[in-house]
Write a structure and sequence with these properties.
Helices cover 28% and strands 26% of the residues. The strands form six sheets. The protein has a five-stranded antiparallel β-sheet. It has three domains: 86 residues, 2-Layer Sandwich (Uridine Diphospho-n-acetylenolpyruvylglucosamine Reductase, domain 2); 110 residues, Uridine Diphospho-n-acetylenolpyruvylglucosamine Reductase, domain 3 (2-Layer Sandwich); 83 residues, Uridine Diphospho-n-acetylenolpyruvylglucosamine Reductase, domain 1 (Alpha-Beta Complex), CATH 3.90.78. By secondary structure, the protein is of the alpha+beta class. Its EC number is 1.3.1.98. It holds the Pfam family FAD_binding_4. Its cofactor is FAD. One of its GO terms (biological process) is cell division.
Length: 309
């Protein structure tokens, strides 16, 4: 990374320019749930919207590639890493109450937001008590579980446009569908989300969250690093059942393995690489297509560069 770029970014992050807030050539495997991913040229950890705006505009002005990450839970970063600037928003994690609405910054964990709702006796976010993603990522893919999804409770979002301008957009403007939105298409960077909830019975909210947490812990392979649910649910089928019926549980390529506990997950059982993951995903897709004629669409995002030979 150019020394001038490094110094300029330090100045932008002058309120928080410690070793914890700017990293050079650090492996992104430190930050991904799969524990895979090559190095980033430079990683910055902004703490305010002003810093995000300044960094984003700086990269636009100097034509430096920029990649935005939350907590990288439903993501695979290739072994060649990412060039340019990677902005990780996990230090922007404030959660506030406003009437019966919750305003959460994009780096906050949606699990923490669901717990905040419980604390304030608000119902509507129980489904999110086991989703490991950040608020930004949850909006990006309209995250959901156990019959609920972000679109059920989102009212509006504050975004930074691709031109570097702050803008408030209503939930219906984001085209939230099954594990999809128009956030990437529009070039939006999510800064915060507002969830409209309702007053509820705290004992009922708690009981529902405990039930869903039990289901998650009993069915999902949380003892291993993973990228969460790998595939979207194909119409008329369940991805995990198709993979299980294809006798793929336990199939391993390198350190990546189709979970023996839940076939919809691929886990890192030991020094797995992003390449291992991608090869295994492709193998699963081809096997299921050959056996059942069903094409599995990835839910997990894959970004970055391959290792240069």
């Amino acid at each position: 990374m150019n020394k001038k770029v490094y110094n300029d970014l330090l100045l932008i992050l002058q309120k928080s320019s410690t070793e914890d807030h700017i990293k050079i050539n650090q492996p992104l495997s430190y930050y991904t749930y799969t524990k895979t991913g090559g190095p980033a040229d430079i990683i910055v950890f902004p703490t305010t919207y002003e810093e995000v705006e300044k960094i984003y505009r700086y990269t636009l002005e100097h034509q430096i590639p920029i990649t935005i990450l939350g907590n990288a839970s439903n993501l695979i970063i290739k072994d060649g890493g990412i060039r340019g600037v990677v902005m990780i928003l996990t230090d922007m994690n404030k959660i506030e109450l406003r009437g019966d609405s919750i305003i959460a910054q994009s780096g906050a964990a949606i699990i923490d937001v669901s717990r905040f709702a419980l604390k304030h006796e608000l119902t509507g976010l129980e489904f999110a008590c086991g989703i490991p993603g950040s608020i930004g990522g949850a909006l990006y893919m309209n995250a959901g579980a156990y019959g609920g999804e972000v679109s059920d409770v989102l009212t509006e979002a504050l975004v930074l446009t691709k031109e570097g301008e702050l803008k408030t957009v209503q939930a219906e403007e984001l085209d939230l569908g099954y594990r999809t939105s128009n956030i990437e298409t529009n070039g939006y960077l999510v800064l915060e989300a507002t969830f409209g909830l309702k007053q509820g019975d705290v004992s009922e909210i708690k009981a529902k969250m405990e039930e869903l947490t039990f289901l998650r812990e009993s069915k999902q392979p949380l003892e291993y690093p993973s990228c969460g649910s790998v595939f979207k649910r194909p119409p008329g089928h369940f991805a995990g059942k198709l993979i299980q019926d294809s006798e793929l549980q336990g199939k391993r390529i390198g350190g990546a393995e189709v979970s023996k506990k839940h076939a919809g997950f691929i886990v890192n059982v030991g020094n797995g690489t992003a390449t291992d993951y991608m090869k295994l995903i492709a193998h699963v897709q081809q096997t299921v297509k050959d056996k059942f004629g069903v094409e599995l669409e990835r839910e997990v995002r894959i970004i970055g560069e391959d290792v240069k030979s």
